[in-house]
């Protein structure tokens, strides 16, 4: 890709895309830049990298998947995956919508909180393909009344493009049912986190969380100011939502002389930062709703606090654009 910087570090690890490919990956190419897409693993991005001139080396902009994760069909091991029809957790997998109590399939313990919707756990279909662009399609049919699962039918697309500006994803979804459907969406990217990694973003406030990583109160946490001035990712241990995001974040790897700008369009007005100390990666996610937004609304916060999410009337659609632009420090 012509806009990609040549890193000052020569420590790019060996990488063989052929070893990652299980025969079902789709490769997008623009110049030296390559994106590997895994339609069968939740419509995920498996890797995005620049092929270095030295054979067998690559400069990764997102944390690459492993062959083990591909074979296990594990979206949590991908570079990024789509979030639909809601982002992050719903407390106890239950919420009330238009007078009806909705119960979602969930596990036990911390997993009793329904997580990230379901589109990331199911295969997507390749609808169209070019050398540097791909459209993926997904449809969910509501189970028969009384059955388990998301009780609203919808269709969705991801249009993924690799060009001279970087990697972009256009998300689109439409309500196929005969009743109004609550809906939230976004993407869940993982980034490399070598020492000194810095993250900058303008946000208004951070949601404090309880022991089960669910939001309880909005506050002016020190991370808010740190993000504006440039937060050293290893200095914070966070798994939190931020409101008032200006839809842009800058990731910098100073020791490698490179940076990556994340930009999103409305309604991806919320920002999630997950960075656990000791892990070699972190997540900075553009999303359309605060964690557990449906229950926060029930708690009387709607109208007083902006928690995001939307409601799609029958036949109504929603879309948003997000993208990553590489650069040089």
UniProtKB/TrEMBL annotation:
Q: SUPFAM superfamilies from the xrefs?
A: Galactose mutarotase-like
Q: Which CDD domains does the protein's record reference? A: Aldose_epim_Ec_YphB
| Pfam families reported for this sequence | Aldose_epim (PF01263)
Origin superkingdom: Bacteria
Q: Name one GO biological process term.
A: carbohydrate metabolic process
* Annotated GO MF terms: carbohydrate binding; isomerase activity
Listed InterPro entries: Aldose_1/G6P_1-epimerase, Gal_mutarotase_sf_dom, GH-type_carb-bd
What this protein is called in its record is Aldose 1-epimerase
């Amino acid at each position: 890709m012509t806009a990609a910087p040549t890193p000052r570090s020569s420590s790019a690890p060996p990488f063989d895309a052929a070893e990652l490919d299980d025969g079902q990956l789709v490769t997008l190419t623009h110049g030296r830049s390559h994106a590997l897409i895994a339609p069968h693993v939740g419509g995920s991005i498996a890797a995005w990298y620049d092929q270095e001139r030295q054979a067998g080396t690559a400069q990764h902009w997102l944390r690459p998947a492993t062959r083990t994760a591909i074979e296990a069909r594990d979206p949590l091991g991908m570079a990024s995956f789509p979030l639909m029809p809601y982002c992050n957790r719903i407390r106890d997998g239950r919420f009330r919508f238009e007078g009806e109590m909705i119960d979602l399939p969930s596990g036990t313990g911390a997993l009793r909180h329904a997580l990230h919707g379901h589109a990331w756990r199911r295969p997507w279909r390749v609808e169209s393909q070019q050398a540097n662009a791909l459209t993926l399609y997904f449809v969910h049919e509501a189970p028969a009344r009384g059955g388990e699962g998301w009780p609203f039918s919808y269709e969705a697309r991801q249009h993924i493009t690799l060009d001279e500006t970087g990697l972009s994803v256009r998300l689109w979804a439409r309500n196929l049912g005969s009743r109004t459907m609550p809906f939230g969406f976004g993407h869940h990217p993982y980034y490399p986190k070598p020492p000194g990694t810095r993250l900058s973003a303008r946000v208004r406030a951070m949601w404090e969380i309880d022991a089960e990583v669910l939001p309880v109160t909005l506050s002016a946490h020190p991370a808010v100011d740190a993000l504006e001035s440039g937060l050293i990712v290893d200095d914070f241990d966070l798994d939190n939502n931020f409101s008032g995001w200006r839809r842009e974040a800058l990731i910098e790897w100073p020791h490698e002389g490179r940076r990556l700008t994340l930009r999103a369009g409305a309604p991806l007005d919320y920002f999630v930062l997950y960075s656990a100390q000791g892990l070699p990666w972190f997540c900075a996610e553009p999303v359309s709703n605060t964690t557990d937004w449906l229950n926060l609304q029930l708690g009387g916060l709607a109208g007083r606090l902006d928690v995001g999410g939307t409601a799609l009337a029958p036949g109504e659609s929603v879309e948003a654009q997000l993208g990553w632009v590489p650069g040089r420090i």
